[in-house]
Sequence to fold (281 residues):
Amino acid sequence: MTHILPNFIYGGPPKAGSSWIYSLLDAHPEVFVPEGKYVQYFTDFYDRGLDWYAEQYADATPQQTARCDLTTDYLFVPEAAERLARDIPDAKIFFSLRNPIERDWSAYQHLLRVGQVRGSLAQEIDVSHRLLSSCSAYSTAISRAWNLFGKENTLVLYFDDIRTQPQQTADQLHDFLGVSRRTIATAEGAAKNPARAARNPRLNGLLKNAAIAMRAAGFSRALSGLKSSPMIDKLLFSKDSVPKLRDSPEAQDFLSARHTAEIAKLETLLQKDLSKWRLQS
Fold:
């Protein structure tokens, strides 16, 4: 049986522009992305087999030549990356890198909002969900992608460019996917999912577990509708912003020290000056 599978994979990490990427690609007539953004086949649902995975792309039309899986952490999980390379050896991989100091803080605040962590950042960072514990090891994930798929089949974008030059970033990604460029509206260049405080983290945690169960049961489309509901949004989140990293000097110092070596390693790997990441922190 011939399976219609994705040919482009988002390498990650989470909390680095994936919602903007999803909105950009979902609006493009030559691109197919499953509703709900996350498929999580190679991490969470691999036991369901390729038939199940192919079903997620069954609605792709012949015009939609770029079929994308935007799950955010495959390349950060060695077993998932190896499964991906075995099942889709010709896949092309694209990353969107964010200052890891900012990314970790954003991930921590997200996990607090959904009730998945309760301790301090230092207590949680190495023991909690991989969203926080391992998804800022960019150099490892990129090297893994180069080794498994080839450097020539990998694209690295930057979250800072999504913020400051969204059209150029969109052009880069469209070119990599082999689809036509399109002019994006001003609103499409805005950041997605701005962080806001949870009204009740415990309730959010219960609903997060329910959402995971819904996705596992195949209700990603219904889940997507619920997540975009203004009523649900109002129920879960207040208008207050989450604490900024700059207002948490202890966390800022902790994360800066934690990522000094990783930033230096990434500069060597990518041959790119990332000193602004140190200055931003």
